[in-house]
Amino acid sequence: MNSNIRRWTRHLAGTLAALIGAVAVPAGAADVKFGGLIFGQYGMYTSRTTNAAVPVRGKGEFDITRIYVTGEAKFSPTVKGKIVIEGNGTSNASADSHKANQVFLKNAFITWMPLEPLSVEAGMIGMPWIGFEEKIWGRRFVQKTYTDQQGMLNSADKGISVLYTIPKGYGDVHAAYVNGEGYNVQETASGDGRYKDAALRVSVSPMPENEWVKGVKLHMYVQNGQQGSGEAKRRDRYLAGVSYQGSKGHLMYSAVKSYQGNNTSLTSAALLGSNNRRTWGQSVHGSYKFIESASVFGRFDHFSTEAAPLAVLAHTDNFNRGTLGVDYKLAEGVMVSLNDQWLTPLSGVKKNENQVLVQFEAKF
Question: What is the pLDDT of residues 63-72, one digit of tens each?
C-alpha cells in the first residue's frame, strides 16, 4: 500500500514538473536576454559659481546619473525585439523633461532583417546619429554627445528606420521616418500632428582595405521636418564630420547647423524663443590608449545661437566647453574615469563653470 502511494506520488510530481516546464518554456518561445547599465559619479565644483551664477564652490555630490535595463528577444533568425527602460538620478531632474529619480521607456521596437546587409526597425527606435557617435566617443557615462547634450538632435523617436551596411566595409546608410518630437513627448506636444521628420545618415570608409587609412570615415547627416505649417515652423538639421578609429584610440570632428524656425522671417520679439532660432556648433573628441586598460581622452565643444534680425537673445547661450581626463578598465564591462569638465561663456551674462568628477560605468 505504502509503496503504491509513493509510486503514484512520484508519478504525480513528475507529471506536474513536466506541465510546469511546458508552461514556463513553451515550444517556439523567443530567446530572451536581459542586461543593464549603471552610470555613477562623484562631482565637485571648483569654480565659484555655476554657469547660471549660482554659488557652488566646494560643493560635492554623489549620484547615480543614469540606469538602463534592457531586454532583447530573438524570435527567429530574421526577427528580433528590444526594450530599454531608462532612469535618471537626482542631479538630472530637468534632463529630457523627466523628474528626478524617474524611470521611463526609452526604446521599444522590433527588427526585421530580410537580407544580411539590411535591417528594418519599427517602434520607439534609436535615431541614426546620436547612438552612432556614442559608439565612437565611447564614454557616454562621462558626457552625452554634443548634439544630444545641446538638444539639437533626439536620441530616439517613434517611427521606422532602415539600415543598410555597404559590402566590404565601405560604410553604412541609415534612414528614418519619425514623428520628430522625440521619444518622451506626444507628436502634438510641440507640433500639430500632421508633419513628420525624415532623417538620413551616410558614413563612408573610402579605403577600408588600406592598412593605413582603413579606420577613416566620412559622415553626413540630414534631418528635415516641420512642427507645423509655414516657414516659422521649420525644423532642419545638417551635420558633416570625419572620424578615425584604431586599436590605440580615436579622433572625431563634426559640425552641425540647426534650424528651429526661420528667424529671418520673424518680426515679433516674442517669437525669438528657443523654439524659433538657428544654432550651430562643432565638436572634436579623441582618445589614446597608453596602456592596455587605460586611456587619456579629451573633448572640445563650441555652441552658438543666432537671434537675427532682433538681438533679443544677445547670444547669451554661446559658449565653449571642454573635457580632459583618463579612464581605466577595472574589469570586463566596468570603466572608471577621473576628468575635469569646464564651460566658458562667450558673453558677459553667464559665468565660468568647472567640475572635477570621478565617474564609473557598469555594464552587465
Answer: 999 999 999 9
